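Notebook B, p. 112. Complex prediction, attempt 2.
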Amino acid sequence: MDIDSLDYFSDPLLALDPYGLLDYLAANKPVYREPHHGIVMVTGYEEAISVLRAPDIFSSSTIVAGTDPLSLFPERPEGDDITGYVNSHREYLPQNDQIVSADPPSHTAQRALLMGLITPKRLKENEEFIWRLTDRQLDVVLPQSPVELMTAYAQPYTLLVIADLLGVPEEDHPGLLGLRGGGQMPGAGRSDTGHRRSTQGHNTLEVFYDYFVARIEERRQQPRTDILTGIALAKFPDGSTPEPIEVARIVSNLFAAGQETTVRLIGTALKRIADEPETQATLRANRELVPRFVEEILRTEGPIKGEFRLALKTTELGGVPIPAGTPLLLMNGAANRDPRQFGDPADFRIDRPNARRHLAFGHGIHTCPGAPLARSEARITIERLLERTTDIRISPEHHGPAGERHFNYMQTYMFRGLTQLYLEFTPKG
Amino acid sequence: MESTVHREIRVDRSLCMGSGQCLWYAPNTFDQDDNTVAVVIDQHGDPEEKIQAAIDSCPTQAISIVPKGEPDQS
């Protein structure tokens, strides 16, 4: 494979089907400096874990800063340790006020506000309410056939669930949806392929801040039982109370950034169920396998292909020298297919014993705090759909007949997800 | 190793997010229940350094080591 000729960051064919390249890299070049942009692509599982466990060396500051992050600074920092320079120039980087781009100790303080908010225990207690929202949105979708699932189901559904968990009243949904158009994380739903720098929309979640500052202040005055109250009353580890805007930034991220990825997860999962009658039959006969099915979807084709890190100190990774200032693309979507960790990694196996060891939600300090919610939403959607239908099919009218299907994927090097998924249903009864 | 005899590993179930990362480092000490919340299956299932790595890696800091017999605060 002549990998040096392939530009992962601009080739539209690689956005459509990245896994040939990623599987090759994970198996043969787990740490690979690609020649087009000088970016070190980390595709090996152990190597990815090493990066994720060393935030003092591999900073998240450039997580969405594009392929030439140092060009965003007034000058290019030099030397074997650029920690000081980066820390004093963070305002030049996109999404610099968001927890995803923070490093310790700032990250540690912000993350403390999220502790215990979205947990399996809490979601179990709220399971019935998530089922109700699921059924409510399926009521809209099931009478239509074929129907485009992403727009008609996945997007409104994920919004309903997070809004309800946060305690955002229904009359505010349309206004927030309108804001969301300008409030997505860079790369979500739009092209971030190519050399264009993501300097526009510096802190794109700002559109939500005023709204949530007001809600945080309300909850501090009049506490309720919702998650928003929990985060409004949370304190920093040193016991101090955060400013409402500090809380609003994190809530905005919970509200906006997590949804897009869950939408894609639901799409990918339903595509496989609809396109593989055997898999669908297995799940219909063995509902208890649904959680494992979701994990294997996350492992083989998770919504995040990769995200940037920046080497703050000169180091080495998997035998490859990494000078300070090197941009790395940490490829969760490739590490999950590393044959040293997962045998026959391209095979989709519901019974894979170690499927949950995937890195789809990251690892270490930045592990996705919404993971339990994403898992619940995907699982309950599948369970309710199987319960309420006797058959789920891909629409041949939109995607072609079996064996000759065509699907469109997001044109981005960061995310993996269908742009549309047209399904047909045979409702039960 | 007197210190390991008198200590107890605790998981705060209201903090645990079910990431399962403790199992990666100390698979003989931790497991996950049906709701994916971490549980301690063996207080001494792995070498102390592996257990410590599991505690350090927990993204929600839900695992702690307390002196044996200390009242449960969670």
